[in-house]
Structures
1.
Amino acid sequence: MNKKIINLGISILIFILIVLTKPFGIGFNQSIILASVAMVLVLWATNCVTKTISSIFVIIIFFIFSSSDANTILKFPLSGNLVLIIASYLIAHGIKTSGLADRISEVVIKRYTTTVFSLIALSFVLSFILIFLIPQTFPRAIIMAAIYLEFLNKQNISAKTKSVILFSIFVAVTATSMAFINGDIIFNNAVLQFSGIHLTWLGWAKYMLIPTIIISILMYFGFIFIFYRDIKGSKFSIEKSDNGKIKFSGAEKKGALITSLIIILWVTESLHGISAVWVSVIGVLSMYALGLIRISDLKIIRLELLLFLTAAFSIGGVLNHEGIAGLIFDKILPTTNSDSMLIFYSIIVVMILHMILGSSMTSMSLCLPVLTSSLPMSVNPIFMMFSLYVAINIHYILPLHHAVIMIGEGEGHYDTSMTVKYGIFLTIFVFISIYAVLMPYWKLIAIL
């Protein structure tokens, strides 16, 4: 029997079982909603039905069976995030068209890479630098992988070594994206929206820049330790050219000018009051005026992605509004009077749910609204938000647990076994990141 049909049958069976059993003491309408969410999560994980169809299905169910209003169900398209994401894709496309990202990456590789270890370290450095040029993790990882492939294909190294190096790019992109709010323009803004917390570009950086640098360094050394046998002894032959001189084209200069303008406006948001949404719009209009993007480039915006995000954003809001999420967490989250134990239990529960649900966005939309809104006064909601954010963002065992990792695996750059091998380390490393990096740093600067 066709695998897609089997997965579809499983998703329908799950739907029927939840409706019949009504778990957690929920009512009929609540069971329809929960069953639809569970069914759609299976459909998303298995891709047995297109995301467009499954996303539209769950949105329709929400309108029919929930008491949630349109603002809750259509939270994503009615927010500034829709404009921000569309603008970011166009900006990333304009920078790619200008050739600026490629030029910077190629120059850095040729100048500073001598060994496999330094090239893997460069994955973290470049992914950090390119945040300012490409404020979206998907295109950032894909562009870096393309540049690395061109370099690696000229080297006499094993296929396994090549896979490890390419895997390091996608690992690095997930780690460094935590430093700034525009590190992952979709996910990071979603985190704030799900939590009901407002932070400026500079406010986010105050909490996460230094911890992200430390976490990224530790992830690098963990990566080297785990894959040392696969990369030891490999050497590169690098051609030096142009006597170290870099000549930028007119398009690259235009891309650099607009990127600099966007960065300056992002950093100084607290001074001028122009939101990141409008800054991105200004960037798009500037790129259009200078010929880096065209009206026809609107086709790069994927309707399927926007529908998926609409559904993913709505799930958490509807489950919370209908009281379903609260019932679930009341059952699975242990009762405690200790703030520290509450945070610890929350991290564990969120990590487990993430492994079950698969999607980082869905996990965040379900967990954050409940766990940040029901905190005792003694717990800083920003700390809880970032703790859960780190627990989800850098924890993956299978590729489906992180969209960026899934893209790299889907492109054939590495296989699932490599993700599992590193994911076991990350399961432990999440707690090191939170308790040995985030907590001490925030106490040091007196914001915990």
2.
Amino acid sequence: MKFSRVITSSRVQKNLGVLRTKTGLTPNIFLRFAFCMSLKDPSIPNPDEHNQDGSELVPAVLFGEHEPIYLALMLNRLKKDKLDPEIYLHKMTRAHLNRGAIAVWPRINDLSDFYELVKEERSV
């Protein structure tokens, strides 16, 4: 089982561009963190809440060399949510990326905010 290409919502695509200007962070770094933040949230995101009019992301770029770890995290979450990976892997990966990005976005105005957020999450 593997990730397939993911398309962000138009809202997330716009936010990623602004975020890059404000912080210098590439979208893949921000989205990896946002993805994990969404996985940590016990509620199940609704994939239909997010349009597919944004950026297309290739898993190898999005997750880099750690793609197997992110896949394992996602498969574990699907199991916990009692969702069949054959049916839901792509949909729920997209849902978690979008939900996480939308949730984390307002908390970051500059690179120091991102650093503080990461530091805060590491101490939990």
